[in-house]
Amino acid sequence: MQGVFTGFATIAVVIGVGVLLAHLRVVDLEAQQVLSRLAFFVASPALMVITLSRADVHSVLSANLIATSAGVVASAGLYCALARWVWHRGLGDATIGALSASYVNAGNLGIPIASYVLGNAALVAPTLLLQMLVLQPLGLAVLDADARGRAGSVWQVLTRPFRNPLTLGSLAGVVLALTGWTLPSALANPLGLIGNMAVPSMLVAYGIALRLGPGLGRAGSVTELATTSSIKLVLQPLVAWFVAAHLIGVEGHALLAIVVTSALPTAQNIFVHATRYGRATVLARDTILITTVGAVPVILLLAALLG
């Protein structure tokens, strides 16, 4: 269980640094915007190149991915239905809400938990690749279309994800992994150094927003926040467990890996996307906070029941 506490404690400390810097007026909301843009346009694409180039991309074709995908589809689908028929959210806000309810922290939290709790960091690779290559490009394409006020031509819709820096970084990493090519050190070393800025930039920016932004739930619907958090922490792992255990027949440690990765909290980069496009930023911020705290007892319970 030490890996769970270590992963969450590391994130909490770095977020706390952002809160402290904002409280001491060392930085302001403009600095938060700069850090978010740095993470979105520069550091995160570099991180994706390095991370995915070392991943076992063949694992994305495993049957386990079916269960993971089912949890994502059920969670995002339920939120979208509620956003459309109950809260009447716009396209951009609904997209951020759906991502908040289904996009897990597979990188800076999923990797250490997979390493220390599950015993193998590669177990998070299917979820990471699903999000990087399918869910994130799709969400960013919708956000781009919403920001422009129109979807554009079919060609523009199809090519828009490939004009996004995060998608390009992810695809470059996958190409390297599939081909076995290795970047020369003159390129890999700077990319690695830049990529190392991604997670700290996201977390510090998130801490600044916590301190200087609206209070928890004050700028949005408390019911909506409770819904996104509940969907993420309860519905998504429950659907993944049902599909894996009863429809696919996964057992033992493999089943635990699927359910634990589905129960990870909402990823910090959803807040970066929300900030970048100016959509549902408070909902994304608060869902990340609640699910990050709530995931600790949920993952401990899952490890005790299925481990």
From TrEMBL:
Keywords: Cell membrane, Membrane, Transmembrane, Transmembrane helix, Transport. It is found in: Membrane. It comes from Pedococcus ginsenosidimutans. It comes from the Bacteria. It is a multi-pass membrane protein. PANTHER family: AUXIN EFFLUX CARRIER FAMILY PROTEIN, SLR1864 PROTEIN. The chain crosses the membrane at residues 6-26, 38-55, 61-82, 94-117, 123-145, 166-187, 287-306. This is AEC family transporter. The keyword Phosphoprotein does not apply. The lineage of its organism: Bacteria, Bacillati, Actinomycetota, Actinomycetes, Micrococcales. The keyword Kinase does not apply. Its main location: membrane.
